[in-house]
Write a sequence for this structure.
């Protein structure tokens, strides 16, 4: 079973390959009054900073928790104003009532929520917010492309059951888990749909960052892009859940 160490082992590829989050998501967070200069943010599982960069650009003051030392090193180099703490969200002690906002971008599925939700609740000021989002690389509601048919064929051949836990788009179940224990209540839920065109090299890099893809599967996906003319249009979805501390 692949683990979160996968990302650290591919830190360089991760930094260049993971696409940024859609501008509409950042616009919504601004409209909800959550992003403003001086807002104190703790980000859990920051990776190389795909969400951290725009948070810094919005003028927020960010503390980033990231267990992968290679990822953390790149994050610190790329965004020197961010306080980077190397460790897991479960083990890093967060100061009480020190943050206005907690952010978890495409990392919630790695967290032990029974430990992390109370710790984040304690770390937030009263009425502070927890923002959870996660990109699903493949939109089930978009027209099925030839490339997506190949992706489905590749993943269908895998032995054993799929990764345990709810899928990226099982928002109802994620909301149930995030509100369990009565630390947080839902304020806003929205799914952002977006598209990106990728060439074979970009598919190779991006799919290498997926912890459940083997290198042989990545080779096959990149070969499919070349066979389809060298570029594919991909449709992705990023569900956002905004929660308020109660
Ligand atoms: C898919 S990456 C997402 C990185 C980044 N937030 C982004 O938006 O691209 C998942 C991240 O969660 C981190 N992670 C895994 N387990 C974690 C844990 N227990 N606590 C904090 N972060 C964790 C991984 O090291 C990795 O950087």
């Amino acid at each position: 079973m692949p683990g979160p160490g996968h990302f650290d082992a591919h830190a360089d590829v991760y930094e260049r390959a993971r696409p940024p989050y859609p501008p509409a998501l950042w616009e919504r967070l601004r409209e909800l009054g959550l992003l403003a200069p001086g807002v104190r943010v703790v980000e859990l599982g920051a990776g190389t900073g795909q969400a951290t960069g725009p948070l810094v650009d919005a003028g927020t003051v960010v503390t980033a928790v990231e267990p992968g030392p290679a990822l953390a090193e790149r994050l610190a180099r790329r965004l020197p104003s961010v306080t980077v703490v190397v460790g897991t969200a479960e083990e890093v002690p967060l100061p009480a009532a020190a943050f206005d906002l907690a952010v978890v971008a495409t990392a919630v599925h790695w967290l032990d929520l029974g430990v992390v939700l109370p710790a984040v609740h304690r770390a937030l000021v009263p009425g502070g917010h927890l923002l959870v989002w996660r990109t699903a690389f493949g939109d089930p509601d978009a027209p099925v492309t030839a490339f997506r048919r190949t992706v489905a064929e590749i993943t269908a051949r895998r032995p054993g059951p799929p990764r345990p836990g709810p899928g990226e788009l099982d928002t109802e179940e994620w909301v149930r888990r995030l509100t369990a224990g009565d630390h947080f209540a839902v304020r806003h839920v929205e799914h952002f749909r977006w598209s990106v065109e990728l060439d074979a090299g970009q598919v190779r890099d991006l799919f290498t960052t997926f912890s459940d893809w083997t290198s042989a599967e990545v080779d096959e996906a990149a070969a499919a892009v070349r066979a389809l003319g060298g570029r594919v249009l991909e449709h992705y979805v990023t569900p956002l859940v905004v929660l308020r501390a109660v």
Q: What stands out?
A: DSSP finds ten helices and seven strands in the chain. The chain has a mean pLDDT of 96. The radius of gyration is 18 Å. Strands lie at 40-44, 61-66, 83-86, 99-105, 124-133, 184-199, 231-245.
